Amino acid sequence: MPDSENPEIVETTGSTLIRLRRIEGQIRGLQRMVEEGLGIAMLPCVTIERELTLGILKQVDIQKMPPLARPIALIYRRGRKRPRTVQAFVDTLGSIYDFQPPGP
Question: Whole-prediction pTM value?
Answer without folding.
Answer: 0.45
